Every structure is written in C-alpha cells, then in structure tokens.
Amino acid sequence: MEKGAHESEPLPDAPAAEQSAITRDADVLLAVDDLKVHFPIRRGVLFDRVVGHVYAVDGVSLAVRRGETYGLVGESGCGKTTLGRAILRLVEPTGGTVHFDGEDVSALKAEPLRQMRQRMQMVFQDPLSSLDPRQSVQSILEEGMRAHGIATAGGAGTARLKELLSAVGLPTSALRKFPHEFSGGQRQRIGIARALAVEPDLIVADEPVSALDVSVQAQVINVLSDLQTDLGLTYVVIAHDLAVVRHISDRVGVMYLGALVEEATSADLYAEPSHPYTRALLSAVPVPDPLVEDSRERILLKGDLPSPANPPSGCRFHTRCPWRQPTRCDDERPVLAELAPGHRVACHYAAEIAAGTLQPHAVETDAIP
Ligand SMILES: Nc1ncnc2c1ncn2[C@@H]1O[C@H](COP(=O)(O)OP(=O)(O)O)[C@@H](O)[C@H]1O
Ligand code: SF4
Ligand SMILES: [Mg+2]
Predict the structure, then answer these.
(1) For the segment 44-91, what is each residue's pLDDT rounded down to a tens digit?
(2) Which of 106-110, 118-122, 147-151, 336-340 has the lowest mean pLDDT?
(3) Would the pLDDT of 94 be above 60?
(4) Which residues have C-beta atoms less than 6 Å from ligand 1?
(5) Suppose 175 and one of 16, 138, 245, 279 were both cysteines; which one would form an S-S bond, judging by CB atoms 3.0 to 4.6 Å apart?
C-alpha cells in the first residue's frame, strides 16, 4: 500500500534519498526501487564491442517488511537470481536503488558494504557446488564467522557451532564430516547453517529446494520456517515453482522477463490470480481434488519465453497473452498498479479480465517473430 502511494505521489523537491516513503518506513527492512541489471553482450576479437544488453532485471520495485517472507516466482531465465544477487550487491545494478534497513546499499563503499553483507546472506540452489568439498562442515561454518569477527575459538565457539547444527536439525557429529558425505537435503541444511552463522537479518534463498527430492523439499522448507519463527528472520525465497513458495510466503511477487507482473499476499494471489501470466502459471499446477481438477480452467502458454536480450515491446507478455488487445498491449508497457489493496498487477486490462468482461482468445504463435 505504501508502495502505491509512493509511486503515484513522489515528494516533489525532496532529495532522492528522502523521496521514498518505503525507505523511511521502520517496518520495511528491504526496499528495492526501480532496480535494473543489464548485462552487456560483447562481440569481437580485436575490438571488444558491446552489441546489446541482456535486460535480466528491468525495473523492479518491491518492499519486504521485517519478519516477512517474500516469495519470488517466475520461469527460469526471468531474472530471479540476478535480482537476488543485486539485492546483496553481488552484481552491480545498472540503475535503481536497494535500501536495507534505511541505508542505500548501492552507495556503500567496500568496508561498510562488507559489514552490511553480514546482515544479508544468500542460500544457493545447489548446495554441492556452493560448499567447498575440501572443507569440513566445521571449517565451512567457522570461515564465515571469522570473516565477520564472530568468535570461533573456545567454549563459546563450540557452543555456537552446536547451536547452529541443532537449529538446522543436524547432529554435532556433522562438524567433522565433508559435504560429499551428506544427502542433498542435509547439504542444504549446511548451506542454511552457514548463512545463519553470521547472524543475518535477511536471507535470500535462491531456489533452496529445487535440487531436492519432493519428499525432502518440505523438510527443508520447514527448517526455514521454524528458524524464522525462532530468530525473527526476514526472507526472500526464490522459486520457479509456485507450489514451493505458497505456504511459507506472506506475499508473493511474480516475475516475467525481468519485471514484476503481479504481487499480492500469498492467499490473494492463489485465490485471485489477476495477471494473465499468473493465471497461466497457476492453471498448470495440478489440483489434488479430481472434481476440481476436471473442471478447472487451464491456460496453456503458447510460444517460447522471449529472449531478455530482445524483450517484446509494450507489455512483455503480449506475445503469449490470450487477452492481448490491439494495439495498446503492443505499444505501452503496463506499470504495476493496485487492483485491490495490497494487490498489484501490471496489465492494462486487469480490471476487465477480473470482471470477466474481456474474454481470452487463441494466441497465434506464428505471428510472433
Ligand atoms: N553474468 C551474466 N552475464 C550475462 N547474462 C547473464 C548473466 N547472469 C545471468 N544472465 C542472463 O540474465 C537472464 C536472467 O538470468 P537469471 O537471473 O539467472 O534468471 P533466473 O534465476 O530467473 O533463472 C538470463 O537470460 C541469463 O542468461
Ligand atoms: S497488458 Fe495486454 S498483453 Fe499484457 S497481460 Fe495485459 S492483456 Fe495481456
Ligand atoms: Mg536462478
């Protein structure tokens, strides 16, 4: 809500750092404003020429409150990882700002940035490639602690290590073992323990369960959820699968080709998905009830995901949208606007689609260049 107010009524003459109502809101831990990450595409052997850009993240604004879990979903390649990395400034943004606890992360120099990073940690998709195979679990956990000046020696250090392992549901004997000695689910618990070791406030978990068996996914999600309750952590949980973020997220943002197309509370998003892309994503998820399964609306997305190096004009979803209208959808990029309190949608026709006054039609994939 605050976000909508901020977007429609910027304070006219205030300095940039003071313009955002979001960054001043004490409840907001993370505020991302019009964030852009464009990767240059280079060609040439003798002369290194920039021949274009991959618009990986292209104007994302969102705010995450303290203690909240924000789920970020979208197809592979839509920019989720790049957005997560840009929040921690592991990749330099091309434009826009990230405020963490009121501070502009984009403006921090090396040492203050290092201190800030202690408060923001990332958990990666593939724990095996993100954990050094030559290091024992103890050494992996101590490394981060030492880097941020947290004592690892003596009784306090040992107690801390034991506490970390018990927090993620691993026995103390795990300390002496190496990553390859664990199952995928256990390795992800180690990845979470490593993030926790430096006592962060925010964890960006990038597809934390995508590499795991379905039976293990829920256990790891439960570990994250219990830790949040116990430690008051704030999460951004990234997934390509809506089902994964549904139960742990307070709010969910749906990304398509570098931008948010819809954002709502988890309950509202699943009850009333309003952007055509979200509707298609949700309609692809099977429903356990056979009666509902047989009768429910199914929208098959035709056409491939366009390249983020050459995104479609106007609404980026227009090449695949069953509700596309000439010529506004092709010409004008829709902004994320409030359709209902706390429910933002980037579609020119969201209200008509919700009311049922605009009907879907076949998508002609041949017409797509
Ligand atoms: N370092 C990079 N250099 C160039 N392109 C990149 C780089 N990292 C990611 N990309 C491109 O940016 C787009 C978004 O990637 P990514 O953020 O990994 O998406 P997701 O996590 O949603 O799968 C993709 O087209 C990807 O190929
Ligand atoms: S703006 Fe047009 S093309 Fe884009 S989602 Fe809405 S109806 Fe579809
Ligand atoms: Mg990714």
Answers:
(1) 877 788 999 999 999 999 999 999 999 999 999 999 999 999 999 999
(2) 147-151
(3) yes
(4) 39, 54, 56, 74, 76-82, 308
(5) 138
**Are the CB atoms for 254 and 270 separated by under 8 Å?**
no
From 50, 75, 82, the mutation candidate for ligand 1 (largest count of ligand atoms within 8 A of CB) is 82
Handedness of CA 77, 85, 121, 234 (dihedral sign): negative
Q: Which residues surround ligand 3, an ion (CB under 5 A)?
A: 81
Q: Which residues pair with 122 in a beta bridge?
A: 204
- The residue to mutate among 323, 357, 358, 359, having the most atoms of ligand 2 within 8 angstroms of its beta carbon, is 323
Which of the four pLDDT bands, split at 50, 70 and 90, describes residue 12? very low
Q: What percent of the chain has pLDDT over 90?
A: 68
Q: CB–CB of 88/114 below 8 Å? A: no
For the stretch 152-189, pLDDT in tens is 888 888 899 999 999 999 999 999 999 999 999 999 99
Instruction: Give 354 Cα–ligand 1 centroid separation in angstroms.
Output: 32
Number of H helices, E strands in the chain: 16, 12
Retrieve residue 256's tokens. Answer: 């398509």
Ligand 2 center–CA 349 separation, angstroms = 6
Half-sphere exposure of 355 (CA within 13 A, CB side): 8
Residue 270's nearest CA partner among 288, 283, 255 is: 283
Query: 343 CA distance to ligand 2 centroid (A)?
Result: 17
* pTM, two decimal places: 0.89
Q: Please write the tens of the pLDDT for every residue from 278-308.
A: 999 888 666 566 655 555 566 667 778 899 9
* Domains of the chain, each with CATH number or no CATH: 108-249 (3.40.50.300)
133 touches 154 (CB < 8 A) = no
| Residue from 28, 96, 114 nearest 57 by CA | 96
Question: What is the distance between the alpha carbons of residues 253 and 2, in angstroms, rounded to a whole number?
Answer: 16
The tokens of 339 are what?
Answer: 């359709």
